Amino acid sequence: xxxxxxxxxxxxxxxxxxxxxxxxxxxxxxxxxxxxxxxxxxxxxxxxxxxxxxxxxxxxxxxxxxxxxxxxxxxxxxxxxxxxxxxxxxxxxxxxxxxxxxxxxxxxxxxxxxxxxxxxxxxxxxxxxxxxxxxxxxxxxxxxxxxxxxxxxxxxxxxxxxxxxxxxxxxxxxxxxxxxxxxxxxxxxxxxxxxxxxxxxxxxxxxxxxxxxxxxxxxxxxxxxxxxxxxxxxxxxxxxxxxxxxxxxxxxxxxxxxxxxxxxxxxxxxxxxxxxxxxxxxxxxxxxxxxxxxxxxxxxxxxxxxxxxxxxxxxxxxxxxxxxxxxxxxxxx
Length: 333
Prior knowledge:
The structure is a single chain. The protein is 19% helix and 19% strand. The protein is an alpha/beta fold and 333 residues long. The chain has one domain (19-74, 100-321): TIM Barrel (Alpha-Beta Barrel), CATH 3.20.20. It is globular and about 50 Å long.
């Protein structure tokens, strides 16, 4: 068994300059051919380029199969014990992850494997190493139906059954209270060698008619602008960035396909809405479709139906997983 060294790497302050949309890092894909030819310094996959991909966020893991790309949890792939410095005299200690050394191993393969680190940007887990830095943190903050405290950016749980993962208050008036903390996660990803970010839980607006997030209605413009900020922050660090879900929100899907490099679309075959990922495909952005062996009601999904619906929507990058997103993987023939 290989053990990571115990020395600490100090992750210092990074204060990147925000770019206006599409400049200077990513010209709008709908502009003229000269700008369309721009080749950004980060991974920018076209459909089919990483068809042999996988996503593993929980144990059991198995990264021995040769894949073009893996999506792995940021905290799991931290190679050595690390300190995140916020410049306030109160750094956060991040332990080596359960997959310590994996990034180096995957990068050493021929051809090198792209490593995308999944990062919660619209929510936090109360057990995250940096959770205590977010205003309103406590071991068990208020959950529905009790409103978050006035000074908190930590809202209600992302599912009724799991109280540990909590929405963040992404409304424009609240962001300044936590973005400097949140985007330290991007600094960490860059430092440890992640090739990109899978930005997760940014689709809080989709929950407003069912589970809700604790902060009232979020205007669509503010929801979209948060996604734009997340993408810009990744690109400022020259990291590839993908959007997880949110593509069914018609008012923002076309616009955000210009900001994100690729899309992670959950259950689009199950809900027969893969066509709504069309703006990404039209911009030659890869759409990584992930459907599951069981549907939301716990009934088996049919592989034939799943594969046919992907094909009908011209999606060629699709895998079938368990809800746990462990090593289990299936794909169309």
